[in-house]
Specification:
The complex is a heterodimer.
Chain A: H1 34-41, H2 67-79, E1 93-94, H3 96-101, H4 107-119, E2 122-124, H5 132-148, H6 151-163, H7 165-170, H8 175-197, H9 204-211, H10 213-233, H11 235-239, H12 246-254, H13 263-274, E3 280-285, E4 295-298, E5 308-314, E6 317-322, H14 333-342, H15 344-355, H16 358-361, H17 370-374, H18 410-413, H19 437-440, H20 450-453
Parallel strand pairs in A: 3-5
Antiparallel strand pairs in A: 1-2, 2-6, 3-4, 5-6
Helix pairs in contact in A: 1-2, 5-13, 6-8, 8-10, 10-12, 10-13
Chain B: H1 2-16, E1 22-28, E2 31-40, E3 51-57, E4 68-71, E5 87-88, H2 104-116, H3 126-134, H4 136-150
Antiparallel strand pairs in B: 1-2, 2-3, 3-4, 4-5
Helix pairs in contact in B: 3-4
The chains are: A mainly alpha, B alpha+beta.
């Protein structure tokens, strides 16, 4: 875990207050916003280390206030309503709007937001109703799953998330109480799977699903409950960062309906629910700290990843950000092909090492991998032809994969050695997953159905030398099984 | 609709094995969202031997919003409004403390526990709360009298 080493700056813009913080013990026990309110108007602690208690305002001396002032503050606090305008999840917007919001602000914000709109041109805003952090991560997760258009991965992830019910059972949750939450999550998975089968990459349906309140609440509650169970089962990992016993923390901060996620909860959500997907979760901090750019922080292990959920954090609020992706979906596929065919040789090797590796085939459990087992016939024959319609992105779809026989074994016989020295694509550029298009683009490399006969679906996740847990990885590190570690 | 599925299961569970001293049924068989609850006053409380009629109302957003509980039977208690609403709203019943993983059974147990142990510091009836703190015997006396008067016949 990398919770330490981050400075958590809490400056609360008026409309960005977290909707609930710890109550000021004893003083205003009935008014959940008291702490947030005072945190804002008082001298908010700067660069607060994480392992200090999260209910702030210690630097604020209540005794200096007159009764009148206290009453006034209390009244304001009682009447405080978070800014809950707008949709729960917006469509992608230009991130220059973030810069505009800070046009008259501190120069640090102006510089950083200007730089941000270059590196991350798009933003998706989350409603500030106390669930923005949860919603951002959940939406970012599903959105990436759709974007990758990898049917096997989507099925794998559905099964993985469903298997996490075990965590709920082990922490005493009852199925008849939590099943509707799981149902809602499953519903979104099925929508995504159907979309991938139909070659639909447009995420409108996902935005709609997250704007349907009941449905979205159920999904968010599901993620909250999984996080809560995960924390309870891994209490040792988180207790040091909390000012409350884990059980109590979960009861008051995680299991509730609209308590904003804090840094510890976010790390637990990522650890317990997201990380095993292989996706990365990164936060960009927009605050007044030193520097000309937002401060990045990676919540997942530093590894090659198929997708990154990128959060923009402004004190008390999370949104989603989208880095520049010069090659994804926007550029015509022919550009790749020209580039590849003019210099296909090294690319050829690189592509093969992604997927075709005899050493992989000798791993005993490989054939047990559900993604592999599914591979020969993942596409129902009813699946429509990718040529059926022709929005730009669909030209990527491989024309022959549904019907062709598996590739000749010859391509398996003499694979080039894994090129460990080849650095993975930078995190924010090229599509990071070889789930088809990258390989099929070059006819000289492409054997029909190659990618679908091999476990290309999660090359970085499990059985690839790009995975640190693979024995051929340069930085090989065996996976340590821990009795307390019941992720799967 | 998710709320109906969940409510139906909770109702089935409660009908089958209700917590001690509590019985539930739908106020109207065609509406899952309004329940009639009959609650026996806990032993060793001034409400003993009384049966209190409560209405439990579930929001359509259930379980993302808490149920509301109101006493139909008049009751002398610092945490129940002494009006025609008879509402009780504290602890797990408050929206910001409510957890979607909480059960209706737990709500009812919580309400019954509150009869055994009033929470005068979180009161809605300040005068009764002061009595609980300052003159407990007198509070018990009045509560017992009200129980006899309003809660001795069923319903």
């Amino acid at each position: 875990m990398s919770l330490s080493g981050v400075s958590w700056n809490h400056y609360y813009p008026v409309n960005q207050l977290p909707t609930r913080q710890e109550s000021v013990s004893g003083l205003f026990p009935q008014h959940p916003h008291s702490a947030a309110f005072f945190n804002h108007h008082g001298a908010a602690p700067h660069s607060r280390p994480l392992n200090r208690p999260t209910h702030g305002h210690r630097s604020f001396n209540m005794n200096t206030l007159s009764t009148d002032e206290m009453e006034k503050f209390q009244k304001l606090s009682n009447e405080f309503q978070a800014n809950v305008q707008g949709p729960a999840v917006s469509t992608k917007l230009s991130s220059s709007m973030v810069a505009m919001e800070y046009a008259n602000a501190d120069p640090a914000f102006i510089t950083k937001t200007a730089a941000l709109s270059v590196t991350h041109p798009l933003v998706r805003t989350m409603k500030g109703d106390g669930n923005c952090g949860w919603r951002a991560v959940a939406f970012g997760y599903f959105e990436n799953l759709l974007k990758l258009q990898n049917l096997v991965l989507a099925h794998d992830e559905l099964n993985r998330i469903k298997s996490l019910n075990v965590l709920l059972d082990r922490t005493g949750q009852q199925e008849h109480l939590y099943e509707i939450f799981v149902d809602a999550t499953e519903g979104v998975f099925h929508q995504i799977i159907e979309a991938i089968q139909n070659g639909i990459i447009d995420d409108t349906f996902l935005v709609e699903a997250f704007n349907e309140e009941y449905n979205a609440s159920a999904i968010i509650t599901h993620f909250r409950l999984l996080t809560s169970a995960w924390m309870k089962l891994n209490a040792l990992r988180y207790q040091a960062f909390l000012s409350l016993p884990v059980d109590q923390y979960c009861a008051t901060r995680i299991d509730t309906v609209k308590t904003e996620i804090d840094e510890v909860g976010l790390q637990a959500l990522v650890d317990g629910v997201i990380e095993a997907s292989g996706f990365a979760v990164e936060i960009l901090y927009l605050d007044r700290s030193e520097g000309d750019v937002v401060t990045p922080h990676l919540l997942t292990p530093n590894r090659v990843t198929a997708a990154t959920i990128c959060l923009l954090y402004r004190p008390g609020h999370y949104d989603l950000l989208y880095a520049v992706e010069p090659t994804v979906n926007m550029e015509p596929v022919v550009n790749y092909q020209y580039a590849m065919t003019s210099n296909y040789s090294p690319w050829d090797q690189g592509a093969l090492t992604f997927d075709v590796n005899s050493s992989l085939m000798s791993i005993p459990n490989l054939m047990m991998d559900p993604s592999f087992a599914l591979a020969p016939s993942p596409m129902p024959s009813a699946s429509p032809s990718p040529f059926r319609v022709s929005p730009p992105h669909e030209v990527y779809a491989p024309p022959i994969m549904h019907t062709s026989p598996p590739p000749p074994p010859i391509s398996l016989a003499s694979p080039p050695p894994p090129r460990m020295s080849a650095p993975p694509a930078p995190l924010s550029s090229l599509p990071r997953k070889s789930d088809g298009p990258q390989i099929r683009l070059n006819p000289l490399v492409m054997k029909p159905n190659l990618s679908h006969s091999l476990p290309v679906t999660s090359p970085f996740k499990k059985y690839s030398p790009y995975n640190q847990a693979h024995f051929q990885n340069q930085d090989f590190e065996p996976i340590h099984w821990e009795p307390s570690d019941h992720r799967k | 609709m998710g709320s109906q599925k969940r409510i139906a299961k909770e109702l089935a569970e409660l009908t089958e094995s209700a917590p001690e001293g509590i019985t539930v049924k739908l106020a109207d068989e065609s509406n899952l969202y309004i329940w009639d609850v009959y609650m026996e006053g806990p032993e060793n409380s001034p409400y003993q031997n009384g049966t209190f009629h409560l209405t439990l109302t579930l929001p359509t957003e259930y379980p993302f919003k808490p149920p509301t509980v109101s006493f139909r039977t008049k009751i002398y208690h610092p945490n129940v409004t002494n009006d025609d609403k008879g509402s009780m709203c504290l602890g797990m019943l408050r929206a910001d403390e409510w957890k979607p993983s909480s059960r209706i059974a737990a709500v009812l147990q919580f309400a019954r526990q509150l009869l055994a142990e009033p929470m005068p510091d979180d009161a809605v009836e300040g005068r009764i709360a002061e009595q609980v703190k300052g003159d407990f015997a007198r509070y018990e006396e009045v509560a017992r009298e009200w129980t006899r008067k309003y809660a001795s016949g069923r319903g």
